[in-house]
Amino acid sequence: MKFIIVFVALFALAVAAPPSKSEEAVVLRLESDVGPESFKYGWETSDGQSADAEGQLKNIGSEDEAISVKGSYRFVGDDGVTYEVTYIADENGFQPQGAHLPVAPEA
């Protein structure tokens, strides 16, 4: 009887334990569409990470030619919390937004 109790307790601990960091994530979704003047991609893995982005060339053929990208990414932090960042990256720089990111005061 003691053996069964110990076995059940150890089994419960093994099942309840979080997955080890050495386990590899599996790709659940992978999409990509790349053209000469634009791109779009997205991916998601079994460990809670994901990213989506799309970009376009602006002012093609001029001195002010630039790429404008809008996207987001998500990951699970070491604290178990899922963090999400949305962003725009263009001629004005990288502009991230997220509930966990500090906001600069208005100038």
From TrEMBL:
Q: What domain of life does the UniProt record list for this protein's source?
A: Eukaryota
The cross-references to InterPro entries, in alphabetical order and at most eight, read: CHIT_BIND_RR_consensus, Cuticle_Struct_Prot, Insect_cuticle
Keywords on this record? Cuticle, Signal
Work out whether the entry's keyword set contains Membrane.
Answer: no
- GO molecular function, a single term: structural constituent of chitin-based larval cuticle
Q: Which residues form the signal peptide?
A: 1-16
GO cellular-component term (any): chitin-based extracellular matrix
Q: What is this protein called?
A: Larval cuticle protein 65Ag1-like
**Origin organism of this chain?**
Drosophila madeirensis (Fruit fly)
